[in-house]
Specification:
Layout (H helix, E strand, L loop, with lengths): L9 H6 L7 E3 L3 E3 L3 E3 L3 E3 L3 E3 L3 E3 L10 E4 L3 E2 L9 E4 L5 E4 L8 E6 L7 E5 L6 E10 L5 E8 L5 E5 L1 H4 L4 E10 L4 E10 L7 E2 L2
Parallel strand pairs: 1-4, 2-5, 3-6, 7-9, 8-10, 9-11, 10-12, 13-17
Antiparallel strand pairs: 11-16, 12-15, 13-14, 15-18, 16-17
């Protein structure tokens, strides 16, 4: 059973918890509901924030989680939003994005060049589409540049394949970011390293 401060301090029960002092919180902290943090606050340990959290000053020291992927299949959870996934499986990885929820964001970095099959990121359903642009760098042609676009109406996957000498990307150093901007759309951005005769990585399946 949870022990609440307001059960023992009537002032908190009727007026809420407010402090003008700087605070240091360590250990495991769970905040729910609507929370506003101002001034100098330090959070360490494992902290979980649910509901709306508003910071009225800058947040320092935050860094994204970077996860190494060496399995053939990956289905990032909504709770993993913000994670950078490093793709390190030369014979291919298929990533299935979660059901759309505005604000979800995932970044995929190619750590190992694809040599067979593909690094493929696909939406959860045929009614969820990709929109946005990626820049292609032709690594065997003086780094010539080309831009490719997702049309937001038929494109459901971004596939960097080994076929045709990595024409659609998949060479180490490539990166793409997927941000959910509506109930049916993911916005894509990034730079892919390609070779051969670069072509669009956006696909309808």
């Amino acid at each position: 059973m949870a022990v609440n401060l307001e059960n023992y301090l009537p002032a908190l029960q009727y007026n809420g918890l407010n402090s003008a002092k700087s605070g240091t919180l360590s250990g495991t902290l769970t905040l729910s509901g609507s929370n506003t943090h101002s001034g100098n606050n330090t959070f360490s340990g494992s902290n979980s924030f649910t509901g709306a959290v508003s910071f009225t000053s800058t947040v320092a020291g935050a860094k994204p989680v970077v996860t190494n992927v060496t399995t053939a299949l990956l289905s990032p959870a909504a709770a993993a939003s913000g994670v950078i996934y490093t793709l390190n499986k030369a014979d291919g990885i298929t990533v299935t994005l979660p059901a759309p929820a505005v604000g979800l964001q995932y970044t995929f970095y190619v750590g190992t060049t694809i040599t067979s099959n593909s690094y493929k990121v696909i939406t959860d359903a045929g009614t969820t589409f990709l929109i946005g642009n990626v820049l292609s760098v032709d690594t065997d042609s003086s780094n010539a540049l080309a831009a490719f676009s997702g049309n937001g109406s038929t494109h459901v996957a971004l596939t960097q394949a080994a076929a045709s000498t990595n024409a659609t990307g998949g060479i180490a150093g490539s990166w793409t970011r997927f941000t959910c901007v509506s109930s049916t759309l993911w916005y894509v951005e990034g730079t892919i390293n390609a070779a051969g005769s670069p072509s669009t990585p956006f696909a309808t399946s």
